[in-house]
Structures are given as structure tokens and as C-alpha cells.
Inverse folding.
């Protein structure tokens, strides 16, 4: 099995070293670069093209700003935020910039490994605490992002909430399945949902 390569960027040396040590002890994980700033993250992306880049939000240069730099230099890298920030706006900002996951510090090595495996499979991962906050936020009116679905995206979500698959949504709306998948990607980002089930629950509560 090919090893999963990881970059770890956090401006707290002890925390960064702990994360690196924990990941290195997991079979199949290799940490190929460490850094403390957005510039370091960009350099690691350019030099190593890791499968996963772990980024803190609060670091020199800004973790959110680093996302686009990392993806520009290494488009195949999956960005996973590892932070103490429990602000919904920060989470949504990270997802909108291209991050695939948002994990709160304090997670154990097993939980972090699960998050890494999830985003490598192409799915988003959001810490349960943050998913609950997003849900609560949506129930109390939400943020502008919650209300920014296009008319077509709202049609898609109405059918998702009814339990229809992408294929059947495409048939119902006369769309190709890949077009429905594209709409779902945009919808999950706007709603801050980690999967279609979570998005459907939010949507049902909003209706």
C-alpha cells in the first residue's frame, strides 16, 4: 500500500511536534514537511506535494490565506484545518477556499487519522462539535451563506431532502448526473455540511 504523505503547519512547536510524532506512529502515514507559517505551507506544497496538508487557522500569514496558495502549488493536495477556532464563519471560510476538512484541536490520533482517510476518499470531514454548531446556526436564521443557494440548487435540495439519488434528481430536473454532483458540491460548501444527509436535515428544518 502506498504511504500517505502529510505536511503539518502550526506555529506552536510543541503541538506540531506532537501531531507529527502521533501521525508517524500510524502505519502508512509519513510526515514529509513541517512548518509554522503560510509561507512554509506554500513551500511544502511546492517541494513535496503531500497528499494531506494540516493547517492551523491562527499562524503567521493566516491559515485561511494559505489554503489557496497550497492548492495553487499542489492541486492534488487535500487541505485539512486543525484548529481551536469554533467560529462557524471560520469553518465556512475554510470550506469556501477549498479546504476538505475542519478538525478541532484536542482530537485524538485515531480521530485525526479517520479525518485524513475521509478527505482522501474525496468526502468532507467536519468535527461533530462544529457540525452541531452549523446546524444550530441554520435553525436560528443562519448566515448569508445559508441563504445563498441558487434557484436550481434549491430545487436540487428539495429533492435531496425527499431522499432522491443524484441519478433520480437528474431525471426529475432533466440534468446530467455529473451536473447534479456539481450542484451538490456547491450546496455542501454553502451549507457547511459534511455530507448530503446532514445537508438534508438542515434543509428540512429550514423549510
Amino acid at each position: 500500500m502506498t504511504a500517505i504523505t502529510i505536511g503539518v503547519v502550526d506555529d506552536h512547536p510543541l503541538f506540531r511536534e506532537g501531531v507529527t510524532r502521533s501521525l508517524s506512529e500510524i502505519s502508512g502515514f509519513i510526515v514529509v514537511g513541517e512548518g509554522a507559517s503560510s509561507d512554509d505551507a506554500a513551500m511544502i506544497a511546492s517541494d513535496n506535494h503531500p497528499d494531506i496538508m494540516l493547517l492551523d487557522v491562527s499562524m503567521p500569514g493566516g491559515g485561511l490565506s494559505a489554503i489557496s496558495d497550497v492548492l495553487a502549488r499542489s492541486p492534488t493536495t487535500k487541505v485539512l484545518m486543525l484548529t481551536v477556532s469554533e467560529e462557524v464563519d471560520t469553518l465556512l471560510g475554510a470550506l469556501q477556499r477549498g479546504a476538505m476538512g475542519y478538525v478541532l484541536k484536542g482530537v485524538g490520533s485515531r480521530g485525526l487519522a479517520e479525518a485524513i482517510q475521509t478527505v482522501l476518499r474525496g468526502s468532507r470531514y467536519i468535527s461533530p462539535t462544529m457540525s452541531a454548531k452549523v446546524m444550530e446556526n441554520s435553525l436560528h436564521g443562519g448566515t448569508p451563506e445559508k441563504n445563498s443557494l441558487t434557484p436550481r440548487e434549491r430545487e436540487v435540495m428539495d429533492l435531496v431532502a425527499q431522499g432522491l439519488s443524484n441519478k433520480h434528481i437528474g431525471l426529475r430536473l432533466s440534468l446530467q448526473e455529473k451536473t447534479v454532483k456539481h450542484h451538490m458540491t456547491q450546496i455542501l460548501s454553502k451549507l457547511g455540511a459534511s455530507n448530503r444527509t446532514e445537508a438534508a436535515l438542515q434543509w428540512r428544518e429550514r423549510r
